[in-house]
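We modelled the chain as a single entity of 424 amino acids. Its sequence is:
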Amino acid sequence: MYAIADCNTFYVSCERVFRPDLRDKPVVVLSNNDGCVIAQSAEAKAVGLHRGDPFHKVRDIIERENVAVFSSNYTLYADMSGRVMNTIREEIGDIDIYSIDECFFDVSGIPDYEDFCRKLRKKILKNTGIPTSIGIAPTRTLAKCASKFAKQFAGYKGAAAIDSEEKRIKALSLFPIEDVWGVGRASAEKLKSMGVETALQFSELQEALVRKMMHKPGVDTHRELLGIDSTDISEPPLKRVITTSRTFDKPVKTVSELKAFASKYAAKCAVRLRKMNGAAKAVQFWAATDIFNESIRQYSNASAVMLSVAACDTFELSKAAMMAAERVFREGFGFKRCGVTLLGVEPNMPRQLALFDFDPETRLKEDTLSKVMDQINFRHGDYSIFAASEMTNYKAENAFVQNLRREYLSPCYTTRMSEIMEVK
């Protein structure tokens, strides 16, 4: 039996932990640059706000309904996620983290797993202030379905189990096909055109038809809905590309400034690359002017630098990104957005070195230094230490978000001593 713990409206819940006055009130969290709504409380949904709504188009609703607005505070959310996951580990041991607000764990050896999960969610709420819903079933897909019911219906007391054929049939008959984990929008539309509206109807299709329409991933989902364990997420596939990009508040007009951002974004990509124990074969940099400003000349371009040997250290990737940025830059243009993409990501393992243009001793030193920087930044907060090539002329406390619009940012209550909450 699998269980999945799902944090309820996680970003909103993180903000409410430190703002108890906002409980039962409409709250939304915005995307980078305060662009659109990415999370909303049930009260915000009730007044007509939806995920993906452009912020500038719903300002009137937000002001009229007195909705609390927050910019994305990913430092806070990541730390709160870690606290939730650690609380679960204390009780169950090994867990499979699926996303920032979800994890799977095995409850096969627990006789009364529903009671255990209800006690667990009470402990999570006590330790972190984050409300959770837990679904239990013989497959992960059915557990995801069960967690939806646990969230929607108070009678389950936060934990629901699909542990019999009767419960499986009843639950799937009430579950919309578009909400099934593993069924994308295009597949859902195709299935609906065939009259398949519920998860139960999908599970009753012939496997050969599902394979023809949706290939192996669809077959795995189909089997999971029948109660056959077919999904393995313990070792997620390595991403082939990693991207970091931003839109600027003000145009970047100098090559030195553009190269600094190229170095900064390459460093951010490198941290993610090392976390997945990968290495990249190439670094691409791209930049563009403001496409929405019709009064200026438009320009966009991209350039990629191939590495002689796949790398994961910050310094080598940053050098390649700055080289590409220098190729992309054109005098007389103001760049409104840019980004770095690591290409050809593969597992980081011993490989054949280049004969002439590679220094293994320098590579070893830079690899070690990059890991030490990761440890320092993890312990003391992002950008406690960074490469000098990442410095720009912008003035801000956080070097990475200095050009990012975050007008409604909450304090980093749990990771920054200068912003710790004071009780008077």
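As a brief sanity check on the tokenised model: The radius of gyration is 24 Å. DSSP finds 13 helices and 13 strands in the chain.
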